[in-house]
Amino acid sequence: MTTIRIPPVLRAQVGDAKQVEAQGETVGEVLQHLLSQHPVLSDQLLTPEGQLNRFVNVYLNGQDIRYLGELDTPVGERDTLIVLPAMAGG
Amino acid sequence: MTKTYAELLRETRAGVRELAPQEASQLADSKPAHGRPARYIDVRETSEWQEGHIVGAVHVPRGHLESRIEAAVPDRDTPLILYCAAGNRSVLAARQLADLGYTDVLSMSGGFQQWKSEGRPWKAPVVLSPEQQRRYSRHLLIPEVGSEGQKRLLDASVLFIGAGGLGSPALLYLAAAGVGRLGIVDFDVVELSNLQRQVVHSSDRIGRRKTESAAETIRGLNPDVTVVQHDEMLTEDNVARLIDGYDLVVDGTDTFETRYALNDAAVRAGTPVVHASVFRFEGQLTVFAPFDGPCYRCLYPTPPPPELAPGCSVAGVLGVVPGVMGLLQATEAVKVLLGIGDPLVGRLLIYDALDASFQEVQLRRDPDCPACGTVAAATVADAPADSSQPLETTLS
């Protein structure tokens, strides 16, 4: 299982969990597994075409997946994904 | 037997090796294959040193010569070129150092006066006023800051976008640190609900302009600081004018429109931006250094829909969180201004107050970035800073 860190703005939609676990061989599969458990997140993470929204970044062990293999980036059991949407508050 | 000063000087000079400024310069510039390079020792009084000295010289006033030379030059075989104003005191000092066991002591004939008259390089050291020396004494003790660094801060200018939750603590600490010119862009007035976190303001200033309130606090904290009040909202139309002339920008705003407008103008002007944002118990921080690291559009090419990014007035924020993030912004600003340490360029720090944890993710420049990517960079290089058209920012 891969650990996914949920950003504060989305926590209410995953039962106030700070982290959740999901299965998959790639980042895309892990996110799809997350969305199957919490479909309400779908619009916020992905475009209608299934791509990552440009206002959300996903980091695999601290590295932006856009510079790895995007949603096809392979993930391992002990990997951590950070979902990070833009915040404007100041 | 008594001697006159002239006799003493003549006798001492006879036993001291002297060299002309030109020979001194050649000796100091040479890199010996064995042993240590020669050092200049300025034996004049402090007031003379402060008016100018040879670059690279160590100041050991003759009155403290014996007590301080060992700390300044521990190796007694280091070649020493002593100089004073005209080449007399340095002869007497050379004799004293020889008596202390220094083996290679020379006196520069003609002294600093001849050195200057020959057009040789010298510099005036940074001189802080006695009050500044007391005020910044803790900075002056740090080798990475010192008088030179403090002068750099005093000569620096930083623009704050917003005197709110992030701007308040950062303003206080940059003012305390002696950053000489602080600009503040804010069109708001102080409200009661601000005071849970916006510590640069106070209860008796509710209803007054934030720029005015912050300026009053800063004046009370440090009279060395000049505050420039910009009572206006930052927009695409005025941003280039607002940031012009500042060394660095601290972004403490709370809307995406402002953040994108600032980013694009700062990239065009080549001005670094210390960026932070907060949400409830969490903060993000990074430093955007144009063309050295990613910019805000590399990080987030488009803003999120409003429901995914509520501001503090909607979602709330723990008051201390912008305090922590604002102070981290001030820290990064000081580092960038001083050119010390490893600023948070190309890295984003995530602070979680509930976990008391920091996480870091790596950021990269996007070669296709409309603000700082390959094509945009070429455009910026060809155009004046304020000539580019605003980039499109689609707010959902």
Detailed description of the structure:
- The complex is a heterodimer of chains A (90) and B (396).
- Helices cover 21% and strands 23% of the residues of chain A.
- Chain A has helices at residues 8-11, 27-37, 42-45; strands at residues 2-5, 19-22, 56-60, 63-64, 80-85.
- The radius of gyration of chain A is 12 Å and the shape is globular.
- Chain B is α/β, with parallel strands linked by helices and 396 residues long.
- Chain B has helices at residues 5-14, 21-29, 46-50, 65-72, 89-99, 111-117, 130-135, 137-140, 146-154, 167-176, 210-221, 239-243, 256-269, 296-299, 312-315, 320-338, 374-382; strands at residues 17-19, 39-42, 53-54, 58-59, 80-83, 105-108, 122-123, 157-161, 181-185, 226-230, 248-251, 273-279, 282-288, 347-352, 357-362.
- Chain B has an eight-stranded mixed β-sheet, sandwiched between helices. In chain B, strands 1-6-5-2-4 form a five-stranded parallel β-sheet. A two-stranded antiparallel sheet of chain B has the order 3-7.
- At the A-B interface, helix 1, strand 3, strand 4 and strand 5 of A face strand 12 and strand 15 of B.
The main pleated sheet of chain B reads as: 8 strands, mixed
Number of helices of chain B: 17
Beginning-to-end CA distance, first to last residue of chain A: 35 Å
Helix content estimate of chain A: 10-25%
Strand portion of chain B: 15-25%
Q: Helical percent range of chain B?
A: 25-40%
Number of DSSP strand runs of chain A: 5
What attributes characterize this protein structure?
heterodimer; A: about 90 residues; alpha+beta; 5 strands; about 25% strand; globular; B: alpha/beta; 8-stranded mixed beta sheet; 5-stranded parallel beta sheet; 17 helices
